[in-house]
Amino acid sequence: MEEQKEISFRIYRYNPHFDKKPYYDNIRITLEKGITVLRALNFIKENIDSKLTFRAFCQAGICGSCGLKINGVSKLACMTQVFKELEDSKEENVILIEPLNNFTIMRDLVVDMDPLVEKLKYYYSWVNPKMPVHELGKKEYLISEEKFQEYDQATDCILCASCVSECLMMEVNPNYISPAVLLKSYRMNVDERDSMQKTRLKKVTSDGGVWDCTHCYKCVEHCVKNIDIMKGIQGLRNSGMKTVSKRSEGAKHAKAFITDIKRKGRLVEFTLITRTLGFIKPIFMLPMMIKMLLRRRVPPPSFMMSEIPRIEKVRKIFRKLKKKNF
Ligand code: SF4
Ligand code: SF4
Ligand code: FES
Q1: Among 111, 127, 153, which residue terminates a domain?
Q2: I need a surface site. Which of 123, 138, 231, 282 has the fewest CB within 10 A?
Q3: Pick from 111, 137, 154: which residue ends a domain?
Q4: CA-CA distance, 177 to 131, in Å (whole number)?
Q5: Same domain, 85 and 180
Q6: Range of the domain at 156
Q7: Same domain, 66 and 126
Q8: Is residue 82 packed enough to be buried (19+ CB in 10 Å), middle (13-18) or exposed (0-12)?
Q9: 9 CA to middle of ligand 1, Å?
Q10: From the alpha carbon of 160, which atom of ligand 3 is closest?
Q11: How many angstroms separate the alpha carbon of residue 254 from the centre of ligand 2?
Q12: What is the CB < 6 Å shell around ligand 3?
């Protein structure tokens, strides 16, 4: 007989029609090894509390609808083993179940996905075929194996929104494009059958877009399909720099970073603001600059900064990257 345990599921509950504020329910059930969190939730709904509300469909890690926070981390309920999860529980035999972060909660574990869907629409997250309309569906539009490899991994995304839930930038700016939509934009933009690369890039590289990503890597760490989302983000930045957004603040900021690291091996913060924002915008930052001056927190100008001791090593890395067309 399989190993059994009595487990407490501490579940976030909130029904905006009846509850003044959210609360946690503790539901104890005995489960055997091999059961997933989704099956446990289904058991609770069928046998203990039919009002418990959550989303799920395929039960196989395909549809992306069962994204939840399990013990504080965004995951797919249908792909998470209860017994395995117990190893990370803060309290013995207790599993914490909550809705995804960075979304409005509609009821219990169900969040409002509409803002994400709207972003997918706004950033043209589909292939707009180059092929003339009258030829569509009549002949194949073949792409090279090599080109397909560039975005093969990105096609694994099931839009579960776990990465969106973990994204630090989403926490401070809900209008930020989000890692999932960045990945989609990249996937569509490298598809040679698509005709909207420039239009999409213009949107992706504007305010709230790819330049706002803080490189925290949380999305990569938590992607349920192990997709290298950062490769997509970097890809969009590179194409943006080469085409539409050479003069955007984000592009200028990145360029200033690269120039400094190549020249000195460290940042020349003294001129970083003017090199990014020009000379007009920083005028509005004068009060902050005066405060820094008074506190003697002004970084040294470029001529007072020497190169780091092993600058040649840094330059070698840049030469290597250049060869790889990075
Ligand atoms: S790396 Fe960028 S997109 Fe990914 S979680 Fe961090 S801020 Fe969000
Ligand atoms: S990138 Fe990964 S975590 Fe994000 S929505 Fe797609 S599959 Fe889910
Ligand atoms: S139910 Fe479809 S991914 Fe979990």
Answers
A1: 111
A2: 138
A3: 111
A4: 29
A5: no
A6: 114-242
A7: no
A8: buried
A9: 30
A10: 3
A11: 26
A12: 56-59, 61-66, 76, 78
237 and 118 assigned to the same domain = yes
Residue-wise pLDDT for 210-221, tens only, equals 999 999 999 999
Question: 131 and 216: one domain?
Answer: yes
Provide the CATH number for the domain around residue 10: 3.10.20.30
For 291-304, how does the pLDDT look when each residue is reduced to its tens digit (9 = 90+)?
A: 766 776 767 777 77
Write the residue with the smallest CA distance to atom 6 of ligand 2: 157
Ligand nearest to the CA of 79: 3
pLDDT at 135: 87
Distance CA(76)–CA(55), nearest Å, equals: 11
Looking up tokens 């503790």, which residue turns up?
A: 26
How far, in Å, are 65, 278, 285, 299 from residue 269 at the CA level?
A: 45, 14, 15, 6
Q: For residue 273, how far is its CA from the centre of ligand 2 (angstroms)?
A: 34
Q: Return the amino acid letter for 271.
A: T
Q: For residue 13, what is the enclosing H or E element?
A: strand 4-13
Q: How many domains does the chain contain in total?
A: 3
